[in-house]
Amino acid sequence: MSTPLITPGLVALDLVAADRDEVTRHLADLLVAEGRVTDAAGFLDDVRAREAQMPTGMPGGVGLPHARSAHVTAPSLVVGRLAQGVDWGAPDGPATLVFLIAAPATGDADHLQILAALARRLVHQSFRDSLREAPDAQTVADVVTREVVPS
């Protein structure tokens, strides 16, 4: 990938939101600001359609919304760390870490590769803790790049 999967501009720390739509909207705005999504409303429609198929809450306080969309210009990963958990449909409670995966509509392989690599890391408490304890956006981006992005 020529464009980095994640940058500090794609990290939101201490995010405050009432529900998953508000979280997703905030994270999508970061994608727009970074030039990775051309139409926030269209992209959010694609994310909502995917979420309607099956909630993407994972054990350990994680939300993992994701979508392939014609509005995405480059495979991207946005991380949101929430001050208060938001219900993401996980059996063990609300999510305090949210990872929004955005892939171009034609990027099926990229989308699945990112999702699989992230899911493999998220099962480890130490990985989740390192993101929750990271002092700044640069550290979060560095941890995700080191642990998730294929070399």
Automatic annotation (TrEMBL):
Keywords: Phosphoprotein, Phosphotransferase system, Sugar transport, Transferase, Transport
Pfam families assigned to the protein according to its UniProt record, in alphabetical order: PTS_EIIA_2
GO cellular component: membrane
Gene Ontology MF terms in the entry: protein-N(PI)-phosphohistidine-sugar phosphotransferase activity
Every PTS EIIA type-2 domain range: 4-147
BP terms from Gene Ontology: phosphoenolpyruvate-dependent sugar phosphotransferase system
InterPro entries: PTrfase/Anion_transptr (IPR016152), PTS_EIIA_type-2_dom (IPR002178), PTS_IIA_fruc (IPR004715), PTS_SugarTrans_NitroReg (IPR051541)
Top-level division of the source organism's lineage: Bacteria
Name assigned to this protein: Putative PTS IIA-like nitrogen-regulatory protein PtsN
Lineage: Bacteria, Bacillati, Actinomycetota, Actinomycetes, Micrococcales
